[in-house]
Amino acid sequence: MEQNLEKELREAMGDIECPKGFKCCTEGLEKLCKAQDVGLEEFLECLEENPLECTFSVHYGAVFYCRCPLRVYIVKKFGE
Questions:
Q1: Where are the alpha helices (DSSP H) in 16-68?
Q2: pLDDT one-digit tens code per residue, 11-66
Q3: In the beta sheet, which residues pair with residue 8?
Q4: HEC string of 62-79?
Q5: Measured distance CA(58)–CA(61) in Å, rounded
C-alpha cells in the first residue's frame, strides 16, 4: 500500500474502535466490504450478504446501512 494512502487511512482510523481490528484496511482495499455511496453524509448502503454480522450495520426500512466512519471515509475519498 502506498505510504501516503496508508498514512491517510491511519489518520482516518483515529479513535474508532473496530471489533475486527481494521481487517478491511490491513488486508488491502481489495478486501473491503461491499458498500456504496447513496448520498448520505455518514452512511453507506451495505451490500454484504450478511450485514447483521457487522457491528457497524444499521437496518432502516428495507435497507441495511454501514455507519463505519473509516469505510465511509474510504468511499467518499477514493470511491471504493
A1: 23-26
A2: 878 878 888 887 777 777 777 889 999 999 999 999 999 999 888 999 999 999 99
A3: none
A4: CEEEECCHHHHHHHHHHC
A5: 10
